[in-house]
């Protein structure tokens, strides 16, 4: 998830119908695009095999405010589609001695997919236009490489309509691994003359394959929850109110804690209690908070 937030379940041995029943909470970066679940076949002697995957885009998760719950078909894992990250480019049309020239500056990249065993990649970039290919240098062991290299191509009449920028992971022994690409419209550049920014790397659509339904299904419950953290001063009135409630708890149960209990669902009540305990622990009132909860529970028991 986001290339860096990774969690692993336990291995269920010798079965085609595994059950895990595991739950994870993962903090994702604000810029994340997809959440992927990979089903692996663990091998003791050789490299683990990838059976298939399930992907959810940020938009898909956002369209299910109460979360997604159900079965999802596994899809084939194509190395040419396993891309992530962004590349920083500066593209411009400049005058040339015979014809205008297309200048492409490859500046840097971020969040590239780690393709090597060391958890990184050895990325370089290929820039293709009108049958010509130029390459940057190789940056060793990095998913956040910097190149700051510039390439130029002549914009001849009837030339290609798109510029292709490809990111690759260099391998000394085996085949280079595809990291993603960006395709830019030259016609759009003609109109803008200059375009600079971060471009999201895209998979190689030409090699896309799907065997949906033939690889099995994965039952999931996934919920995306946005958390906005404000400056601590914004929370001070609430903190004072909660502390006052706990401090006066010995004089009789107040109303704030019961209101919180009544307005929260069973699913999130444990999270609320845990966060309140952390808050009062920081204020030196953890014992008073637990005593107040005990009094409330004891009162209910007596009434029953």
Structure description:
The chain is elongated, with a radius of gyration of 27 Å. Helices cover 23% and strands 30% of the residues. The strands form four sheets. It has a four-stranded antiparallel sheet with strand order 8-5-4-11, with helices on one face. The protein has three domains: 1-77 and 209-224, no CATH class; 81-207, Immunoglobulin-like (Sandwich), CATH 2.60.40.150; 232-303, no CATH class. Helix 5 (266-282) packs across helix 6 (286-303). It is of the alpha+beta class. It comes from Oryctolagus cuniculus.
Short description:
With 304 residues, this protein is an alpha+beta fold. It has helices at 58-62, 186-192, 232-247, 256-263, 266-282, 286-303, and strands at 34-41, 49-57, 68-73, 86-94, 101-110, 123-129, 132-135, 146-154, 162-169, 177-185, 194-200, 217-222.
* Class computed from helices, strands and strand pairing: alpha+beta
Order of helices and strands: EEHEEEEEEEEHEEHHHH
Describe the biggest sheet? 4 strands, antiparallel
Outline type: elongated
Oligomer: single chain
Cα-to-Cα separation, first versus last residue = 48 Å
- The number of domains is 3
Say what the CATH topology of the largest domain is.
Immunoglobulin-like
CATH superfamily membership of the largest domain: C2 domain
CATH level-two architecture of the largest domain? Sandwich
Q: How many strands appear in the DSSP assignment?
A: 12
Count of discrete alpha- or pi-helical segments spanning 4 or more residues:
6
CATH C-level class of the largest domain:
Mainly Beta
- Strand arrangement, major sheet: 8-5-4-11
């Amino acid at each position: 998830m986001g290339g860096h937030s990774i969690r692993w379940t336990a291995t269920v041995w010798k079965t085609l119908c595994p059950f895990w029943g595991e739950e994870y909470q993962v903090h994702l970066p604000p810029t994340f695009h997809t959440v992927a679940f990979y089903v692996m076949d663990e091998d003791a002697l050789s490299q683990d095999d990838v059976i298939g995957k399930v992907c959810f885009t940020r938009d898909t998760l956002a369209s299910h405010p109460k979360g997604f719950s159900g079965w999802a078909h596994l899809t084939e894992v194509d190395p040419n589609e396993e891309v992530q990250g962004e590349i920083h480019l500066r593209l411009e049309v400049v005058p040339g001695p015979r014809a205008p020239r297309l200048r492409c500056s490859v500046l840097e990249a971020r969040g590239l997919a780690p393709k090597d065993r060391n958890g990184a990649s050895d990325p370089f970039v290929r820039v293709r236009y009108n049958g010509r290919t130029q390459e940057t240098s190789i940056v060793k062991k990095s998913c956040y490489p910097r190149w700051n290299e510039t390439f130029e191509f002549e914009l001849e009449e009837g030339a290609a309509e798109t510029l292709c920028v490809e990111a690759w992971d260099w391998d000394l022994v085996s085949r280079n691994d595809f990291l993603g690409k960006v395709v830019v419209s030259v016609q759009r550049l003609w109109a803008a003359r200059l375009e600079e920014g971060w471009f999201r790397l895209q998979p190689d659509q030409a090699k896309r394959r799907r065997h949906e339904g033939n690889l099995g299904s994965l039952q999931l419950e996934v919920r995306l929850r946005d958390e906005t953290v404000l400056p601590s001063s914004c929370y001070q009135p609430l903190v004072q109110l909660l502390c006052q409630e706990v401090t006066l708890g010995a004089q009789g149960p107040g109303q704030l804690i019961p209101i919180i209990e009544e307005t929260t669902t069973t699913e999130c009540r444990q999270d609320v209690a845990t966060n309140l305990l952390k808050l009062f622990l920081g204020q030196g009132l953890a014992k008073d908070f637990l005593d107040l909860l005990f009094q409330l529970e004891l009162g209910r028991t007596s009434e029953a």
